[in-house]
Amino acid sequence: MFAFHVIEKGSSHILTNKPCQDYALSHYTKEYAIGIVADGHGSDRYFRSDKGSKFAAEVTMIILQEFLASTKNMTRLPNGDWQKQIAASIISRWNDKIEQDKNGNTFTEDELGLLKDADKARAESDAWQFVYGTTLIAVVRTRECFFGLHIGDGKCVAIDADGNPSQPIPWDDDCFLNQTTSLCDSDAINRFRFVYMTENLPVAAFVASDGVDDTYTSDERLHEFYLTMWRMLQENAETAINEIQSFLPKMSEQGSHDDISIAGVLFDKGKESHNGRFSKFINSLFA
Amino acid sequence: MNPLEAVEIARRQMTLFFIVDTSGSMNGEKIAAVNTAIREVLPEIADISSENADAQIKVACLQFASDVQWLFKPADVEGLTWTDLNAGGMTVMGEAFNELNKKLSRKEFLDSPTGNFAPVLFLMSDGQPTDEYRKALDSLRENRWFKVAIRVAIAIGDDADKNILEEFTGNSELVLTAHTPETLKQMIRFVSVTSSKIGSRSSGIGVGGGSANPEEESKQAEFAEQVKEFKDENADLEALSDGF
Q1: Cβ(A265)–Cβ(A202) under 8 Å?
Q2: What is the chain A residue with the closest CA to B212?
Q3: What are B69-83's pLDDT values in tens digits?
């Protein structure tokens, strides 16, 4: 198993002196790999979305690790409730985290000054959570299964053992142009989409913020990008991650101009993998 | 070289839709002015497209008379040559609205919400619909691409049904009235260039959340402001008596 993540502040955020509002985390053991990306909303309305995305990724990592530690058999989980329970836990703990942050750092006049009157009134009411708004995508590969959960835009691209890319998490038509569903939505629990697979498992899966999707605007290009990344990771993971990270500023500058975050989970299929190159790479990691 | 650099970074697309009434009453000076104006403005839009790092501009043209026909489906404006429209027949505006509604879709012309900016919908007409348009227009107004589009119309002459054009644009300020061929050409150029510039620009920042698309709303508002300024500066043009 292997996992990685990279984050880069967008060129437009550099120009406007805004913080990077993306956040990503990854973690792997011999038994599983986790990749998480969160993209805080970009307009001035969401003035704490950089914190919102960080909290989202952090609570999700904890919850997924707790789930994996407490679940014995990953092949017999019924689709549905357990995934919704994970999503509910994420929403609940994310709300706890943003409340702690707000209580410890009350909204400043400068922050509230960024809002139009209606939003300012909302930020000063009980419905202030939107200022932390963020998307979230998380994927997990174990030896027995692959699962993922997603709210908002951004995409997950998985690659099967034959090197075929797909997008296993259904798209949400409510994510349209710059509009996206969000962890801050009052009905966030109903906005999550899921994938759970126990057969024909992907050997790699990548999740990324829309800074990537808006750069490679067709699925064909997007898939080519991830297939290239996957081949690089098979050759030499450390070199590949350095090359991926070093490419991101150019990608943002020439593409979406947005923040970019990518996380990936990879699994070796042993003799079935591509001429054993990936096996060699995995073996070298655990040597 | 970093292998990732070999993957082509594609610009997003913004499509300018010309929706042109080519009924019999458009015959003569009116359709000639439309053809001349669009043919002359296309190279200018091509320049806007080629100099724009954010978006590639495409142009489509739907004509409606006794039936509807795509003169161009969305095509790259760079290198596009205009084919003259000919006028004759009835005014099936309702059918045109239905056809536009069908094509403003992920499954048709706007195949990717991440690959497209909201389009520009530019309607030109000199008369009244001869078919049942109400249901078609109501349905079109529910189309989500239509809602976020920059919408504008030119009423050609005094016989145009401005009420329908206003319903199409959603704002009476976004209906211009041309009374002479020269005015019509001037307006087509202004609308085409201004809407292309505004519509193809990216803020580069994902917005998210909330109930609207603030970037598109802001483009619509900016375009409306530009049209207002144009009207204020050229008040005499709309006040002319009908020369058609």
Answers
A1: no
A2: A179
A3: 999 999 999 999 999
- SS3 percent helix, strand, coil of chain B, rounded to 5, is 45, 20, 35
> Closest Cα of chain B to A1: distance in Å?
23
What whole-number distance in Å separates Cα of residue B198 and Cα of residue B211?
A: 22
Q: Find which of A22, A131, A178 to mutate to test the B interface (most B CBs within 10 Å of its CB).
A: A178
Better-scored residue on pLDDT, A254 or A228:
A228
The whole-angstrom distance between B61's CA and the closest CA on chain A is: 23
Whether A213 sits inside 8 A of B114 (CB atoms) is yes
- Determine the residue of chain A that is closest to B52 in CA distance: A254
pLDDT over 60 at A278, yes or no: no
Provide the residue ranges of all domains of chain A, joining segments of one domain with +. Answer: 2-285
pTM as predicted: 0.84
Read off the pLDDT band of A272 (50, 70, 90). Answer: very low
Query: Chain A within 8 Å of B1 (Cβ-Cβ)?
Result: no
The reported pLDDT for the residue numbered B192 is 97
pLDDT of A277 reads 45
Look at residue A108 and give its three-state secondary structure.
Answer: coil
Do the bridges between strand B12-21 and strand A260-266 make them parallel or antiparallel, or are there none, so unpaired? Answer: unpaired
Is residue A119 within 8 Å of residue A127, measured between CB atoms? Answer: no
pLDDT along chain B (244 residues), means of 10: 92 94 97 97 95 88 98 94 96 98 92 82 97 97 95 96 97 95 96 95 53 71 95 85 78
Nearest to A184 by CA among A98, A262, A119: A98
Cβ-Cβ contacts under 8 Å, A134 against chain B? 208
Contact A225 B212 (CB under 8 A): no
CB A27 within 8 A of CB A21: no
pLDDT for A37: 98
Whether residue A217 and residue B5 make contact (CB cut-off 8 A), yes or no, is no
pLDDT value at A284 more than 60: no
Q: Yes or no: say if B164 and B129 are a contact pair by the CB < 8 Å rule.
A: yes
Nearest to B209 among A180, A224, A231 (CB): A180
Contacts of B53 in chain A (CB under 8 A): 254
Give all domains of chain B, ordered by start, each with its CATH number. 11-202+213-239 (3.40.50.410)
E strand intervals along A52-92 = none
Q: Which candidate, A51, A233, A43, A203, places its Cα nearest to that of A139? A: A203
**A236 CA: distance to closest CA in chain B (Å):** 13
Nearest CB neighbour to A130, from listed B2, B204, B209 = B209
Q: Which pLDDT belongs to residue A274?
A: 43
Cβ pair A153:B114 closer than 8 A: yes
CATH topology of domain A2-285: Phosphatase 2c; domain 1 (3.60.40)
Give the residue from A167, A154, A150 showing the smallest Cα distance to A261: A154
- Dihedral sign from CA coordinates of B173, B174, B178, B181: positive
- Of A249, A229, A250, A251, the closest CA to residue A240 belongs to A229
